[in-house]
Design brief:
By secondary structure, the chain is an alpha/beta fold. The chain folds into four domains: 417 residues, no CATH class; 85 residues, Immunoglobulin-like; 76 residues, Sandwich (Immunoglobulin-like), CATH 2.60.40.10; 105 residues, Immunoglobulin-like, CATH 2.60.40. Helices cover 14% and strands 26% of the residues. The protein is built from eleven helices and 32 strands. The longest helix is centred in the first third of the chain and has 17 residues.
Length: 736
């Protein structure tokens, strides 16, 4: 009897002895009852070609690596959507998703799609075509052989027939090319690697490769979930006590093997531990959770009480990631989460009522799948129910239905609720124990380092008139990941407008016609290629600190009787850059002289704009009195008769500025002319009395006498007027 058969019988016996007979039932076969078709996508595509997407893509060439068991092996290429913010590779484990009808980490995948990311489902040993269209390289490829997966792993040969291809070498080669292409085309995108079971080992290997110095490919989140070794050939010392068991799943496909480098010639798995796998700083977040089980490898109590792990320590379950302190769960301030996931011994007790006749069937204690949403156990079998993973019964399975399956996946990509709304989603995706953590972790990892806006404020400008132009400068903005930033400026400045708001150095025009000072704000938004943005405000102050220009009228000399009003002496004119009507005023300071009618006006003109900026100039106005008084003799018709004596005549004077000029009679003369024109002095016969401005003729002498007197009038400024006054003595009969 072969060792594989013995292992199988032992396994079935253990199940029946420990847990009894479980209820009978049958699992519904997925049928193609969907009304949706994919003819619009694939009508022009050959059966084996990938439908062309409607968006920008990039192509990745995937050559065949090594040898494969199975049919014809072909090189492949795949086309991946370009420009996504997140690229998530979700890798299933051994014996999982064989019919391309499982969605590992379903809720997390939806979360990525909602973030406009790309989700690529994969087997642990086959990258699969995008959108789970088909296996790559070989249509006969499978994630496990046989209906009872344990029989594939318990063989005593060094190449157990566990899958086609038997190990993950082709997957590793394809995934490395894919990840490199993603990073080349999308340097700022998040790359996420999540794998369960042998898929966990597969993504751990990718993490080690990405950490190599010559690779240094950033991985935003690396999540090996309950990883177990996936390589068949582990070199042990020939002739050792373990013999051909060196390829047995009891040792090869263990969690210990996933966290350590492959064993090498001359090492002893129990005495000389292989080095632990180590991740570099390019792994931004490590999330490693595992559970343990009572079936092979019997590590439910490890360490240290399990059948094959009494020599182990907890550290043997850990990857080496020294860039942050190791914690047991998220939210503890570290990016190094590695711990055992609490699970129930009887994981099947929490199970979707899959069978109507036996709703509580289960109780199997193999917890390897519980962490991702397996529950219970099939009747007379060893497989748990994938209640958090398996698609609805109408999902189109593999083999076949490539186009229809891709069509649904593309619709799901556009609308993350599509599978739920069309009964294609798993029944109980919340039973996956890690999706929630993965969502929270991814939400905390920025897609890239955000840019830093530098608006270069504050800006202070001088008012230029009714509008003022302010030159802005955002060239100091930066991004640690990419120099390709986009700019957008916004402002609340009155009448604010930009010549180009999308420029790093626009000019802002501000309305400055309605106020002395403008205080407002501009905001610069810079955005990187992934849509991360930063906003920085900057103050804008437009001030008027320049005094207006003023021009005084010319200095002027005016007579004391002339007006000194600016309408006569001239007005100052003023202009201002920002105030169209600055206020012009003047003040006078009079400087008197000895002559009260003569003085100097120092006229200071001042102009003030609405910002209280002032300018002034001085005009000098000389007020003078150069006009002599005007004398009036007040002699009537200038005739008198002898009988009129005594008679008085008072001279008066008026002045244009002096209201009381002084008047004095300075000379007197009395004479007559003969018929022949001879002048005869009569001063002795004429008797007069002079007193100031008045002359009194006491005796006029004779007829024909001429009486004259000289009157002087002097104003306050010394202007003198001289006037002669006279009367003629006439015969009374001749008086008019």
């Amino acid at each position: 009897m072969s060792s594989r058969l013995i292992h199988g019988l032992v396994l079935f016996a253990a199940v029946f002895i420990l847990y009894g007979i479980v209820c009978f039932g049958s699992v519904a076969t997925a049928q193609d009852n969907s009304e949706d078709t994919c003819e619009d996508i694939c009508s022009e595509c050959p059966p084996d070609s990938k439908c062309p997407p409607d968006e920008d893509t990039f192509r990745v060439f995937l050559p065949v690596e090594g040898s494969h068991a199975g049919g014809e092996i072909l090189d492949e290429y795949i086309e991946i959507p370009n420009g996504r913010r997140i690229y998530a590779l979700l890798v299933s484990g051994f014996h999982q998703n064989r019919n391309l009808n499982m969605f590992h980490f379903y809720n997390f995948a939806k979360f990525v799609l909602k973030k406009k990311g790309y989700v690529h489902f994969s087997w642990w040993n086959n990258l699969l075509a995008p959108y789970m269209r088909r296996p790559l390289h070989d249509d006969n490829s499978v994630p496990s052989n046989g209906e009872i997966p344990w029989l594939d792993l318990m063989g005593d040969e060094c190449y157990p027939d566990k899958a086609i291809p038997g190990d993950d070498y082709q997957f590793q080669a394809d995934a490395k090319r894919l990840l490199t292409a993603i990073r080349d085309h999308n340097p700022l995108a998040k790359i996420v690697l999540v794998g369960h079971s042998m898929g966990g080992d597969a993504v751990a290997r990718l993490g080690v490769w990405a950490s190599e110095e010559n690779i240094a490919l950033d991985i935003a989140l690396l999540a090996p979930i309950d990883p177990v070794g996936n390589r068949s050939w582990l070199i042990w010392p020939d002739g050792g006590d373990l013999g051909n068991a060196r390829c047995s799943g009891l040792f090869n496909f263990t969690r210990y093997q996933a966290t350590h480098e492959d064993w090498w010639e001359g090492s002893d798995p129990f005495l000389n531990h292989a080095p632990r796998r180590e991740f570099g700083t390019n792994i931004k977040y490590l999330y490693h959770r595992w559970q343990q089980e009572a079936l092979p490898p019997f590590d439910f109590l490890c360490p240290p009480f399990g059948l094959f792990c009494s020599h182990m320590y907890e550290s043997d379950y850990l990857f080496k990631y020294d860039h942050d302190i190791r914690v047991s769960r998220i939210g503890q301030g570290s990016t190094n989460v590695q711990s055992k996931m609490p699970t129930s011994l009887f994981s099947g007790l929490v199970v979707w009522p899959w069978f109507s006749l036996c709703p509580n069937c289960g109780g199997f204690i193999d917890g390897h799948g519980e962490i991702v949403g397996f529950r219970g156990v099939e009747p007379f079998g060893v497989n748990s129910y994938p209640v958090a993973l398996e698609a609805g019964e109408n999902w189109p399975p593999w083999p076949g239905s490539e186009c229809e399956r891709e069509c649904h996946m593309r619709k799901w990509e556009v609308d993350p609720e599509y599978l739920d709304n069309n009964d294609y989603a798993p029944k109980s995706p919340n039973l996956c124990k890690v999706s929630g953590d993965l969502e929270k972790i991814l939400a905390t990892i920025p897609e890239s380092e955000p840019p830093e806006a530098d608006a270069k404020g504050p800006y202070e400008s001088e008012c230029e008139g009714t509008t003022t132009i302010v030159s802005l400068d955002g060239t100091g903005s930066s991004d640690p990941d990419s120099p390709n930033l986009t700019y957008f400026w916004h402002t609340n400045c009155p009448g604010g407008s930009f010549d180009d708001p999308d420029s790093a150095t626009p000019e802002l025009t501000v309305d400055t016609s309605n106020g002395c000072k403008v205080d407002c704000i501009v905001e610069l938004t810079v955005t990187d290629e992934l849509g991360n943005e930063d906003i920085e405000p900057a103050d804008v102050s437009i001030n008027d600190t320049v005094s207006p220009d003023i021009s005084c009228p010319a200095n002027k000399t005016v007579e004391c009787d002339e007006s000194t009003d600016p309408s006569h002496t001239g007005e100052a004119t003023a202009t201002d850059a920002c105030d169209p009507e600055p206020d012009v005023t003047f003040t006078d300071v009079n400087t008197p002289s000895l002559c009260p009618e003569k003085y100097t006006i120092t006229r200071t003109w001042a102009v003030t704009d609405y910002c209280e900026n002032t300018s002034s100039c001085v005009q000098t106005i000389e007020v003078v009195d150069t006009t002599a008084p005007v004398i009036s003799c007040n002699v009537g018709d200038a005739t008198i008769t002898p009988p009129d004596a005594p008679i008085s005549f008072m001279a008066t004077a008026t002045d244009n500025c002096d209201g009381d000029p002084s008047i004095e009679i300075t000379e007197f003369d009395c004479f007559k002319f003969t018929k022949k024109g001879k002048r005869i002095d009569k001063t002795e016969s004429c008797v007069v009395d002079v007193s100031g401005d008045t002359i009194t003729i006491l005796d006029s002498g004779g007829v024909a006498d001429n009486i004259k007197w000289t009157v002087n009038a002097t104003d306050g400024c010394g202007n003198v007027a001289v006037s002669e006054c006279a009367v003629v003595v006439v015969n009374p009969g001749n008086k008019p």
